[in-house]
Amino acid sequence: MRGFEKIEFILASFLGPPKNGTDSPQQQYNCPCCAQENGGVPDGKYNLEVNLQRGVYKCWKCADTNGTQGSLGSLIRKYGGNALYRQYKEEINALIKAKLYSIDEFFGRGSALVERPQIKLPASYKKINLNGYCKYSVKEYLESRGITQDIVDKFKLGYTELEPDKPDGQGRSWSYRIIIPSYDIDGKLNFYVGRDYTENDKRAKYKNVTGVNKTEIIFQESLIDWDAPIYLCEGAIDCLFFPNSVSMLGKHLDKDDYLCTQIKKCANSDVIVCIDGDTKLSETKAIYSLLNYGRLKGKIKYIRLGESPCLYKDFGEIYQKEGKRGMMKTVRLAKTFSEAELLF
Q: Helix, strand, coil shares of the chain as percentages rounded to 5?
């Protein structure tokens, strides 16, 4: 199809040629997810349908069981790799400039063309340097949590001082907070959380940036290794202390959340649910059951915090009290639910 040759070349490089040629924007390919379940061999059914104009795809065989559908960009990123994904984005942007694509024609999370709210870090945001000048109360708080400079650098932690007020009255509420930023797969700021470092009881300890629906982003997506075990935790602080810990920004996960859909598509190892110890067992079971099917069946595990043998309430407290050794001891507690346990 004229105008889409480079995108067709990108798709063919990892999917093979389409069944019906390239004269139509609607093309059929062998599904790579079905091939994985067939020992890595394409099944020759060409059930994966791609719509080039809308930038979406769906496998008519395994979409319901494996979630194999969504934006074309997510397909390329998962099965073609980040280099091809970047090429795809460059070509999309070129086609938009040439007026061959319209942003309004696209839909679906993860697409290169999804317009997301533009957010900025607070005005007084400063990078943290524990080895140089750093506000004493910031340094004192971080040391109390066991947060070292290597953690600061990895997660790009910063802090605020007195923020200028804004017409909406929200400006000052960002004053005197540790800022935990989040970046998407392309390195763009997509969310941030502020944690009060003054221990002021008259205001909330945590504050989330406004104007962003947290169900539509993955917190610190840029740091996730989809081929390694993933530890689902609750808070933004918790994910700082163990490799590949991913904050759900809460204790609930729904099937339509972007985090949930990406786990189902991209996770290639165990997924361990380890939300705070003050949650009900039923809440852990709900997340466990949501993920434990299809290609992830048998790969979902959980850790119960706040009860024997781990009495600490969350990852942050474990690290604060026992450091890396305590974290290693805790993650070894991961186990599965039996079918009978999930019924009650």
A: 35, 15, 50
Please answer whether residues 300 and 288 qualify as being in contact, where contact means their C-beta atoms are separated by less than 8 angstroms: yes
- CA atoms in the 13 A half-sphere facing the CB of 50: 31
Burial class (CB in 10 A: 0-12, 13-18, 19+), 199: exposed
Q: In what order do the strands lie in the sheet with 189-196?
A: 126-127, 158-159, 177-183, 189-196, 206-208
- Return all residues near 248 (Cβ < 8 A) that are at least 6 apart: 219, 232, 233, 234, 259, 275
Task: State the pTM of this model.
Answer: 0.71
Reported for 335-340, long-range contacts at CB under 8 A and 24+ positions apart, including other chains, are: 335/301, 335/302, 335/303, 336/298, 336/300, 336/301, 336/302, 337/285, 337/288, 337/302
Q: Contact 153/85 with Cβ under 8 angstroms? A: no
Helix, strand or coil for residue 310? Answer: strand
User: Residue 183 belongs to what H/E stretch?
Assistant: strand 177-183
Query: How far is Cα 190 from Cα 172, in angstroms, rounded to an integer?
Result: 21
Whole-number Å distance between alpha carbons of 132 and 14: 48
Domains delineated in the chain? 5-105 (no CATH), 126-215 (3.90.980.10), 224-342 (3.40.1360.10)
Give the sign of the dihedral formed by CA 286, CA 292, CA 296, CA 298. positive
pLDDT in tens, 113-164: 444 557 899 999 999 999 988 899 999 999 999 999 999 999 999 999 998 8
